[in-house]
């Protein structure tokens, strides 16, 4: 950082100041002095580029009356906009703002002692006031007293912890005590190692706990435990900076002066300690010099600011941390602070870091100042940000290994390109196009990284590449570590590469002359030491070339573009120049030490050499920017911007202060561009004088940028001779060739058109070509520019052919495709008949209908058909995919597509049409796999899609049987109906033949044989509807029973007897017996009980069948030499099978015992019923056969007289005995007309009734 005095305000009547406070939020400054003087001031700050300059006016200057004694303490409550002041008489006044003026709000006077200090909490809710006699008062913002306490010690200072949990009290004898803020109870005494060696008590002059919310989280302490925030300072100049109130190892500081006060800035990044140092004058007299020392939170000295006057009474920071106010005698001095931001500028991108309240890491933003794009990265424990060329580096500490650091090489969007670990302290860093140089106090580490510049080496001055070894060395990546005290010698390329990676040794820190600055170019590295000694090392083969001594301690160093001049800014802000090489430009000699130049500027805090002229540089002096050519300055410009680049007579600078105020939203207005005077003058001359006069001026002030301006001006005036000379002067080979091309044209109109094109006035050039009736040249111009819209327009006007317009449409389609406007792109691809692009973008647009039309447009065998088919398959359009595959000649791929999309019917059809035998095999294997996984429903769906109706019906029948066993009768009926429908489909498929005559008969015979072979082994498939009928009538009987329709229940129950092979016999005959009992049909009831008494226990299900083969017996033929382990396994298996057989037998016996018990119960019940109601077994049917006069029962399925098959009514369960009935078109079952009219669907198959 750098600090310089910028303004002084005098207090009227020479009243001496005692206290000072700067409001961090609103910017008010309260100052108190003798005789009750209390004033509130506010500086008038500018905006934008003028914001950083020294303010000249005061926007507020109000004197507050109310105090008689000297103002001892002033303090701001920033959240509630209140000011608290106290004088030497003990009077306390709280001031409030009303309509832009300050008025008294509350007054308090204890009349016993003087107020030594008062502090508000960080949230402004509470205030703590301490008196010299030990009295403490804690109050709220509304004036209420919360608690008070009388301490038995004299107090001088008070401070709140950032979270408001603790209060620290400083005593007059130099002690600090910690109390609980809510109760006022004593907790502990602060350990003060900075004054342990002092025999007598030392006066406490400063106690400040930074309330920076970025580092202090309260309760648990610091989010970054290594960032101290609590500072304690004593009059002897000693200070300690602590991480928390319990920190046992604080950072110790000895300022070497008599301190008077101290304060953190609002960010907690800089600590200012004010005091007086005794110095000897030239005559030997002792003189006190006021000064402010600035330190980092870790205790590192940052800067010293000397202040005129007898001493510093008070210090206060501005809220931004960019200014500090000092109360000295009867004056207020203001000093501007230029912080050392972590930032860099490279390749039109600004990289900078800052911290956020919600995150412990550093937020690093890569901002492209041209496109306004931002890329955000979060980096832990960031130390340095440096940039050069097309890259920047981030230096961080690692978390895992103490003392280890990492250098991350990034591009302009923040993506890491390379990284390197190193185990040494990182104090000073610089980077060039190829090298990273890191220094500790005594060690130097150099890393040559690989980048685009390393490969091309375009931007390197050729005279630095001495020999083939250097050229090879610059293409390799290597690193080297050496001490600043050793005499480093050059290593060969092979040795350097062999040393990578190097072994780091811990720095001993024994050097008496530590490193304090470093800079580098592509030719050398310069390392500055505290004594002023400069070590010069050559690159790329590192060796100590020479040393020379400066007359100051360097703080910032930089080399010009030729590495022959060195600029040095010392610790006091003085800018000096040294000539380190006296060799001519074309010499290959290494740099040599030279003399100091007669140039000196004070209060300089930044400088930048021009990258294309060794004499030009820019520097920032206080709030002014100067541009120098040699030692001659131009007129200064008011600015506080940080310098980024200086080339082509333009300076790019950035207002980092404004960016850091809102780092997430940088604005392009914060990037400034300045031109040198010679560039401005040249522009004016070119507009006002002749080309020859301008040529003479530029010869006196030569620069490639000026020659470029002259060349362009000469082109505009068609003066090709001067233009060629100017292009030669600025070494623009393309410009020279362009001028030669113009000379060859001969035609002035064509020359004017080409010049207009050179200046990117394309419309003007086109107009010239049209005026001379050369539309072909206009078309050629637009083609070169890639302006295909204009090409289409010119071709339509008659300036081209069909081939050119097709190319233009293709390029216009590419234009819209690159911008993801695919709907527009396909319009132009369609006009260009670019089917390949149409396939791609129709797919992106999900326009599948247009893709289907492409199938017809593409020729057979086209590879695009296969691409189109794959895209259809990816979205499940099997029909279109098969069509495309087939037309493309990929039949196997079409079949595979059907299989993948589960379209087995299409797959089988294609396989049959093209004689591919693999599909049925794959289908069966897949179906069996599904059945084994008990996924029968999916297997059924698979068979249905493949038109394997019989196989589907078999699986559905199996599901129906399983549902029947689980008493899910409705589900069982549904499965039987589906199975029957599949059998019907199979029959229709077999009988659907277009043959005639004998061929038809033969086809019919083959179909019947196929059907018999498919269903013959399964009795359930022979009459597929029988299972559905069984469960239909069973549920109908149950419903009739619950409806107490006893007669209908008996009829339906008697019909169920025909299905006892499908239904459970116990359930069927139990239902018949129950219905007959209620119907008093004792004959039917007796027959049912006879069947119930004759029931036998069921054998185990097929699924429960156990293999009882004795594996030992089957293995009897094995050789006598048996592995003992195998033998043991076989014995265990035999034992397990025996146990399973025993369990199976036991289960069968239990089933037989249960059935025997049921038979006895049936016998007892039958005995009770039929003793009272003897059965009549000679009953006659009540109905008559519709085909003969024989009497039949209403549940009969055949006539005993004519042996005619009779059909049941699916609505009532009765046998149909009339010719008035309805037949379902699906299941072919019948129902009475007067019964079916109530239904919309068939009661059996549930198909719609028509």
What does this structure look like?
The structure is a single chain. Among the domains are: 2-281 and 288-338, 7 Propeller (Methylamine Dehydrogenase, Chain H), CATH 2.130.10; 677-745; 1024-1151, no CATH class; 1179-1250, no CATH class. The chain is extended and about 155 Å long. The chain contains 34 helices and 60 strands. Helices cover 34% and strands 28% of the residues. It is an alpha+beta fold and 1250 residues long. The strands form 16 sheets. Strands 49, 50, 51, 52 and 53 form a five-stranded antiparallel sheet that branches. Strands 1-28-27-26 form a four-stranded antiparallel sheet, with no helix packed on it. A four-stranded antiparallel sheet has the order 2-3-4-5, with no helix packed on it. Residues 343-675 form the IFT121 second beta-propeller domain. Its main location: cytoplasm.
Give the termini distance in whole angstroms: 97 Å
CATH homologous superfamily of the domain at 2-281 and 288-338 - what is it?
YVTN repeat-like/Quinoprotein amine dehydrogenase
**Structural class estimated from helices and strands:** alpha+beta
Query: What is the CATH C level class of the domain at 2-281 and 288-338, in words?
Result: Mainly Beta
